[in-house]
Amino acid sequence: IIDWDDTILPSHEIFTNGLENAMHRHGAVVEEFETVLREIEESALRLLQRALSQGLVVVVTASESGWVEKSGAVFLPRVLAFFRKHSIRVVSARSRYERVCGPNEWKVRTFHDEIRQL
Prior knowledge:
The protein contains six helices and three strands; from the N terminus they run E-H-H-E-H-H-E-H-H. With 118 residues, it is mainly alpha-helical. The chain has one domain (2-117). The chain has a three-stranded parallel sheet with strand order 1-2-3. Helix 2 packs parallel to helix 4 and helix 3 (67-75) packs across helix 4 (77-85). The longest helix has 24 residues, at 31-54. The chain is globular, with a radius of gyration of 14 Å.
């Protein structure tokens, strides 16, 4: 089980640097960040390949459904393609538990759910 935000995708840095606006400009990422994002993408792919060699991989986000796909398409498209190629499931902890408990519990409960399913 791997967390998306700030584990695979550098979400904090993306929002700190205003790069989330790239998602509204049809994926035009500021050139100065392109090299860094490709390096992050390479590292993420290595992590995912190693994890997949050990067994089932599930990606969890505290964001709403669709965030991983949308942000991945803009910032880490090869990672998103890897998810599709290897049928890696993406789970939104928020969408699963938003009506049941507070934000601090979304991921905890989702991680527990996913561990129980293994």
